[in-house]
Amino acid sequence: MRRKRVLPPAELILCIAALAGTAPAIASPRPVPAPTPAAPLRILLTNDDGYNAPGIRKAFERLTAAGHDVTIVAPLTNQSGTGTKMLSAPTITVRHPEPKVWAVDGTPGDSVAFGLSEVFEGRAPDLVVSGTNFGPNVAGLATHSGTVGGAVAALESGVPAIALSTGGVAAPDPVATVNAMAPTVDFAVKLIDRLRVRAKSGPLLPKGVGLNVNHPVVGADGKGTAAGVAATFQDPQTILAPDFTDSGDGTWKVGVTVDLRPPAKGGDVEAVSANRIAVSPMNANWNTGPADQAVTSALIAGLRP
Predict the structure, then answer these.
(1) Residue 2 lies in a domain
(2) CA atoms within 13 A on the CB side of 188
(3) 74: which of 21, 46, 52, 131 fits an S-S bond (Cβ 3.0–4.6 Å)?
(4) Residue 102 near residue 17 (C-beta atoms within 8 A)
(5) For residue 258, is it within any domain?
(6) Nearest residue to 74 via CA among 36, 100, 38
(7) If phi over 0 gives left and psi between -120 and 50 gives alpha, with beta otherwise, what is residue 289?
(8) Per-residue DSSP letter, 233
(9) 60: CATH
(10) Per-residue pLDDT, 11
(11) Nearest CA-CA partner of 196 in 68, 7, 55, 33
């Protein structure tokens, strides 16, 4: 179940390469005028760690300082691991504790749905940013991530979205991870600036395509600079394996063990493990592509009800 099957468009690859400092040089016979500054964006900011978590507050601070009009619409409590769950209760509690902040007693998907329907009623935001999340959302972790789920809810409604996470594949150090949220959001600001300059008056991203961005924790204190930026895909491994222990009374203790295998070449795990920022395109459905469609057609050929 790999959501991120969409290959990055050529312009997206160039965008990421330029951010990594590897864009091809283009000879110019005369000075090129500086591009006209793109207009600030209206951004719905959500997450799965809760509306008052350090990652979303850092993102709000940096994106606002960059000139964007940012509104937090995020879960009231920690909703990590809720994936794409949404609209599963007949009522929902919503608080408005301060200007530009809405706290929804539900999942990231619920938060985005409420934000698009009510907070941004009549005029959708230019972009939904989900995060930055505490810990990585690479490989199988992304499939079950509430952070990614919030971005998927936006894509389903036709709004461009970026899922943003901070962490390596090892067990996170809380202090270093929180410190690494600053360079994570700094990169997000650069990425958003690049997208809006390239988009001009058009869409920020191709229709139905979002970005899953994973920033590593670099250095013992987390304040180091990433080694580069890579256009990646979601590594097919799960990373975590479930572990159940029989308590003998009809209940089972639930745990997980780390099952990290060699990373797929070009995947998000490989990039983050090498201290590079992984940028993976994703879409909001489970389609696997024309090749698998053809295989399925051959499989069911001749079958009758």
Answers:
(1) no
(2) 38
(3) 46
(4) no
(5) no
(6) 100
(7) left
(8) B
(9) 3.40.1210.10
(10) 45
(11) 68
